[in-house]
Amino acid sequence: MSEHETQPTAGRDQQAQETHKNNGEDLTQQDALQKDGEQVSTAIETAGVPEAAIPELVIISGMSGAGRSTAAKCLEDLGWFVVDNLPPALIPTMVELGARSQGNVARIAVVVDVRGRRFFDNLRESLSDLDSRGVTRRVVFLESSDDALVRRFESVRRPHPLQGDGRIVDGIAAERELLRELRGDADLVIDTSSLNVHELRAKMDAQFAGEEEPELRATVMSFGFKYGLPVDADLVVDMRFLPNPHWVPELRPFTGLNEEVSAYVFNQPGAKEFIDRYSELLQLIAAGYRREGKRYVTIAVGCTGGKHRSVATSEKLAARLASQGVETVVVHRDMGRE
User: Fold this and answer.
1) Over the stretch 237-267, which tens digit does the pLDDT of each residue have?
2) What is the mean pLDDT of the chain?
3) Residue 324 to residue 75: CA distance in whole angstroms
4) Of 195, 200, 254, 244, which Cα lies nearest the Cα of 224?
5) 3-state DSSP helix/strand/coil percent for the chain, to nearest 5?
6) Phi and psi torsions of 128, nearest 5°
7) DSSP reduced 3-state for 3
8) Which of 9, 199, 255, 277 has the fewest CB atoms below 10 angstroms from its CB?
């Protein structure tokens, strides 16, 4: 006799009548969990589960072709339990199953993207559900320029999942619009336009490899305005109000990492005062980010070519942030590009 045949009929009928709301439709719990071919047991409540047992959650999303799979693989290598293309409506169920694992699944990463189609609309509802349960969750959004995405799709000779009968750029535009709100709510935005696989993995390692989660992580990025603004910047600083060392022949070959260049920059009127006042402003902003639960901030510091003033200023700002207890990474995006 099968296991189901040993159950009382009334119990089976009651279980069959339990429904799961998914995109406005009433589905049985088992049907909802098998909708995308997933074979998962029915949902379980977190009531009675110790708070410490509720797993940490990272949701990876972003543009198709921007590196979601690489980011997910990196977390998998760091010991996270990774689920690719899970319908957003099932994320709370995944967390509940992890909570019942007796600590065996302490960290879960879920890749959510436009392949989920109609399920994608349920993401906000799922996130609200997780917040109400006190689940620690973060959203990582992978971004990239249109040109970079077109090159990547053409190199693998695959269509964009949303282009339909149109062009690749049409699919990219549709996806950007669909993901616009999620990008705005993301805790961490990573622009992969100029990153290779190894550089993306290094960025993910820098954010998630630590044993203890800091209150706030900051990336201070120097850049050149003539190469475009970093799309993943939260704050932008323009250092072009200072004289350019490029026009000093003996300093031109060097960068802002050189002591002579740094001394030249910060001996200019207003330079040291700017660092002092902006550092105070960053303290105020950092305190607000902590209160709002924002764990990541990218500060983009720009000058004309991203070689002298922005590099020297980024190093100074990073040192100030580190002295204030903020875990800081410095990236010089355009240094050496000339």
Assistant:
1) 999 999 999 999 999 999 999 999 999 999 9
2) 81
3) 28
4) 244
5) 45, 20, 35
6) -65, -40
7) coil
8) 9
332 C-beta neighbours (distance < 10 Å), count: 21
Strand partners, 83: 110
Angle between helices 271-292 and 309-323 (to 10 degrees): 50
Asked if 78 and 205 count as a contact pair (C-beta separation under 8 A), the reply is: yes
Which residues of the chain form beta strands (DSSP E)?
Answer: 19-22, 25-28, 56-62, 81-84, 107-111, 137-143, 188-191, 217-224, 235-238, 296-303, 327-332
Contact between 96 and 43 under an 8 Å Cβ cutoff? The reply is: yes
Give, rounded to a whole angstrom, the gap between the first and last alpha carbons of the chain: 76
Whether 43 shows a pLDDT value over 70: the answer reads no
- Nearest residue to 230 via CA among 106, 155, 127, 331: 331
CB 35 within 8 A of CB 85: no
β-pairing, 107-111 vs 81-84, is: parallel
Which pLDDT does position 68 carry in this prediction?
92
Asked if 110 and 86 touch (Cβ cutoff 8 Å), the reply is yes
199 — phi, psi (to 5°)? Answer: -70, -35
Residue 329: what residue type? V
Task: Round to whole Å and give the CA distance between 136 and 173.
Answer: 32
- 27-31, 50-54, 249-253, 332-336: the lowest-pLDDT one: 27-31
Q: Rounded to the nearest 5 degrees, what angle is found at the Cα of 264, between the Cα atoms of 224 and 233?
A: 25
Place of tokens 């990474």: 329
Looking at residue 41, the DSSP 8-state letter turns out to be P
Give residue 303's pLDDT. Answer: 97
- pLDDT band for 212, please (50, 70, 90 cuts): low
3-state secondary structure of 226: helix
Q: How far is CA 314 from CA 250, 289, 290, in A?
A: 22, 20, 22
Nearest to 194 by CA among 219, 225, 224, 230: 230
pLDDT at residue 42, rounded to an integer: 34
What pLDDT shows up at residue 10? 40
Please tell me the pTM assigned to this model.
Answer: 0.57
